[in-house]
Amino acid sequence: MPLEKIRPGTVHTVRPDISVLSDSLEVPGIGHLPVNAFVLLAAQPVVIDTGLSLPDRNFVETLSTVLDPADVRWIWLTHPDRDHTGGLFDLMAAAPEARVVTTFIGAGILSCERPLPLDRCYFLNPGETMDIGDRALTGFRPPLFDNPATVGFFDDHSGVCFSSDCFGAPLATADLAQADDVRDVAAEDLRIAQLLWATVDSPWVRTVDMDKYLATFQLLKDRKPDLVLSTHLPPAAGITGALLDTLTTAPDAPPFMGPDQTALEQLLAGFEPGGGGHGGI
User: Which residues neighbour 183 within 8 Å (Cβ) at sequence distance 6 or greater?
Assistant: First the structure.
């Protein structure tokens, strides 16, 4: 079987002004990883991340089911990993008035692959706020992250938290990964999956100073968002306290160790003629 099984994306409306462009991919031995982008239908529309960098994806076409791409004014890139930037440059072409919200480091990382026009960038650091007409967006550094350019944000109008990779969880099936409510997942299954993701995506969490780590949760506790939207989790409404409680235990979670060369050779053997595979990855 292929190394990754890909499922076509779907679109969920979670609030009248917020849509989720959901996708997922199967990672053997880990589960089905949600991969979400979001649309915020503010006075100046915002697209948050732009999906997977896979050749069979057409992010702009999917986005067009929610709004005319030409109306997009801001592309908030929570960080420049390939599962967040798939449709970035196509969207920039389709939305000539849009600017990319990122950091100095984020722009630098992106420009290693393809030049990012600096006149179309808007640099915003954690703790800073930008006005988008009918509301303000305040950037913050989530407690867990895998890229130094990561900046999530709070929508100061609705209170919704866009958390980037933080709170993510690989789930048992593609249907669960692309569900419109994370409460479709059993609470204990979700807790285990989130701790797995924490050690996969942020392995440094096992080495942190506990007091300093717990202090990074204070902003979320103060804000009390009733809806958390993570790139790698179905929409999470009404369970913010449980999400935070789970991540406070991440430093004590067992470390993740991926397959070694022996396991890889066993996997490849299954692809050889007569080995029951399909002839390649």
Answer: 236, 237, 238, 239
